[in-house]
């Protein structure tokens, strides 16, 4: 028993990578594509790590913003998710190879070809306040998730549940309205203590200031906008974590965090590609830190408003894809710290069809296609036109994401060469979402999707999901894809699901619905005094409770609690 | 008397200031001629290369020529700074002098309005406007201009309050000078020393304000270069590419120094009191 | 004098209502909604229903004037409501941050006056001398450097290269375990850089302003008169000169209150200091209406007090204003 419950999202050291996604996960699966185990950077010989693991010491991490709320089912930002991941457990979790495994549930049974799931819970698990954990807590969490008066973002998957019955204090039976395979992964949702929250309003409860869970770390203290302190749970059911204290310092500026690394003020941080490739090769960094390049859990794309007449013609969309040099964008903007992607799944997922090639940069062919679609430079002003209308459009993207803005600038340049005038509008997030995306007031967007471990992407691509506020805002519609998305949800067989997702991948790619640009890597730096870090498909944080520091290297041993 | 001895000094300051600003203006005007690259031409083989014969000021993260961006950025930054202060200056002088000269309910009304505007943390207004219509150059100028006049208005009002009971004003009024003439020919010019210093400082502040907005990600948006957003770009590369921060920083520095020298130089001749 | 004060105080009430109305409508009409941030980044699993649920919960589906009425009746009881972001009372969030911001800005103001006034006076007296020129160059340099850049360079120098000061934050990790004097020393070490940087940025403005004012004043007839009476230079400079030169400075200081409360986002972000500027910025970004409203109204209130004090200061030093006001 080594792993720990943080697999719902691997945000431990990834504060700026977006957000948490509950439904994630591969049900009994194996990785199809190449496994991403790269241990890049300064690989210091870890001689001292060969000894027996020792308890003690502290890890200090940096988060870009402070957690908003620590009630598990309301937590939606990455900082809250990171902290909740250390304090709470779900029924299930992902192991290092991204396979679902038991967490609070010892084992589970799938019956009636997936209509019914029975969870057998661990016995002798206690909340941090000493109360025993039982099936009633699971029932309570489920009720809150589906309670209309609770503003949880995660109700979607749980509304598919017809009933949840407590068979005995350690057995829960869940019946779905219809077979719903992403449902299993949704039970990675953190379980909340009924005895503390039963009579509380989750939105204003003081529980959020003093969360009590079953996880490897206990809540200690919170200095607002400054730091959060957790201490090891000595009674954790998988054994006490070695690192005795966990600090998350709120450092809003990544340049400040990088200076802090240089004074060893923090032990771990996420790096930018530039910092990773150019600024961590000094002797100081080589002796004090190790760097890791890990697969990310999302992709960046250029999407069109498919209802806009300009983008209705598939040849035009294909031409745009041919005109953009994706390889060069990855090389320049991400300094190669990214993965090529050609479809709507994570490149490391079994759902990703590796046979899909995507379009290679070919400006000549792009020009030809555009000409065939009627776009020609008839007035010789360098801009293509058709029926007297010049080919120009506006790309919207959000503020605060340097890589996206730089990518937009490069795309602007490529398309200028192809005879298309592109304007870039960088908008503040909230305004972009409500005023432009939800109202369909855009021509093209440069955005990213953070994805869960389960490949189900019904909400993004199904043609029924186009109401304002829903996620198929590009208005993609393909009856065959709709059908496949539906079917893939209704079977638990990975073989069948893989086949369907591969076809979805091929069709969406073949439709040139969007330009899939890149899936950027997570770049982490961690103090070299920590032993036991084992990068895997699931990142590095999955075995955090087994990280340790040899006695002679422990830095924070003097402090008595 | 020490003043006498120094009478010639201001013109030296003026000369330096005009020279500096003039130089920047020439650079800005001739940007298309002087720049040997397009400010947005990306060169994937030349990322972050240090100054060389080909790229005098080096290149940035996208391999764009920093010199070209510096020159085109000068156009943007200087225009933005000047236009902001034109808007803010007109509003401030107008409101301040009306308020100070006429007093009474008009003064009450205008000063209350000024107070309300002062109480609005400016960057919130900016955020709201930018959220609505995007942060184009025009919007930045407008919003910074419209929110930058209050200090000046209060200053002008206070100056006019102290001046308007002076004998020469009373005499001029007795001779039948109109209100407009009194304000424009007598009061405002006599208050011009502090007004001018404030406005000159204002241009500098406006240029800096744009760079502060860039820091928050709501300044002039790429790919349009301004000294402010160039400097902000350089933030990520501070330890790797000094040239990316040095040159736009130098631009801002020279502009501010130049405007201040002009201000100082002009001050004394203009400030001679009767 | 007293009636003038009374009149001004009564004038505050409609002003505050005006500000609250304006703030309320501007922030509610600006695009975006609190539900965007609370529901996270673009997450396909955040359901459409959840968004609507939230809007109902926070009364965001009611007409604006109903929301304003609710807010206003609460504010009369000094109840600022609870934050939409985390459900905590707004007043708590506000009170946590305000001492930090006040400390940083108060100290930097002190520094500015401490260095700015003498520097300005000396520069004015020895106009054109080496000190005047040198101080002008140094101060313009500090002024011309964008604050964030200066901050990063100083952090690198004093924090990393020399290792004299901590790079960021307000306290050390083990602050809670320190003794009293250790705590003070720790705070002082953490505050040194942010205070210095924020003071440097405004030092040039104030000191050059005082120099120019001083210059004007020193050419006034009454100074010539004082000089001709052979009063000691010290008396001429400080009693007659500086007193009059400081007049407009009072006005500037009165106006700097909203800047002090809200304008420190950049320092606070760079130095990772938990102050009001950051709170405000984050609230605006997440459309946390109750927090934004509370901060706008409080800032407005403080500004009005500041501007009132500035006016009073003027009236005290310059009797003509007082007479003018009382004539009406």
List the helices and strands and how they pair.
The complex is a heterotrimer of chains A (561), B (274) and C (328).
Chain A (H helix, E strand, L loop, with lengths): L57 E6 L14 H10 L4 E3 L5 E3 L2 E7 L4 E6 L13 H12 L8 H4 L2 E8 L2 E6 L5 H5 L7 H4 L19 E7 L3 E6 L12 E6 L3 H9 L5 E3 L2 H6 L4 H6 E6 L3 E7 L4 H4 L1 H10 L2 H8 L4 E2 L23 H10 L12 E2 L2 E2 L1 E7 L3 H16 L3 E7 L1 H9 L6 E7 L7 H4 L17 H11 L4 H17 L3 E7 L1 E6 L34
Parallel strand pairs in A: 1-10, 17-18, 17-19
Antiparallel strand pairs in A: 2-3, 4-5, 5-7, 6-7, 8-9, 9-10, 11-21, 12-21, 13-19, 13-20, 14-20, 15-16
Helix pairs in contact in A: 10-12, 16-17
Chain B lengths: L1 H4 L3 H21 L1 H4 L31 H37 L1 H16 L2 H12 L3 H10 L3 H14 L3 H8 L4 H12 L1 H24 L11 H9 L6 H30 L3
Helix pairs in contact in B: 2-4, 2-13, 4-5, 4-7, 4-8, 4-10, 4-11, 4-13, 5-8, 6-7, 11-12, 11-13, 12-13
Chain C lengths: L1 H28 L4 H5 L9 H10 L6 H13 L13 H36 L4 H15 L2 H15 L18 H39 L2 H8 L4 H13 L1 H9 L1 H6 L2 H6 L5 H10 L3 H29 L1 H9 L1
Helix pairs in contact in C: 1-15, 5-6, 5-8, 5-15, 6-8, 7-8, 8-10, 9-10, 11-15, 15-16
pLDDT < 50 runs, ≥5 residues of chain C: 38-45, 323-328
> What is the element string of chain B, with H for helices and E for strands?
HHHHHHHHHHHHH
CA-based gyration radius of chain B: 22 Å
Largest sheet of chain B: none
What is the CA-CA span between the terminal residues of chain C? 13 Å
Task: Characterize the largest beta sheet of chain C: strand count, sense, and whether it forms a barrel.
Answer: none
Give the DSSP E fraction of chain B (strand runs of 2 or more residues). Answer: under 5%
CATH topology of chain C: MetI-like fold
Structural class of chain B, please? mainly alpha
Low-confidence stretches of chain B: 1-9, 269-274
The ordered H/E elements of chain C are HHHHHHHHHHHHHHHH
CATH superfamily of chain C: MetI-like
What proportion strand of chain C?
under 5%
Structural class of chain C: mainly alpha
Integer tally of domains of chain C:
1
Overall pLDDT confidence of chain B? 81
Q: What is the level 1 CATH name of chain C?
A: Mainly Alpha
Secondary structure tally, helices of chain C: 16
Mean pLDDT rating of chain C: 76
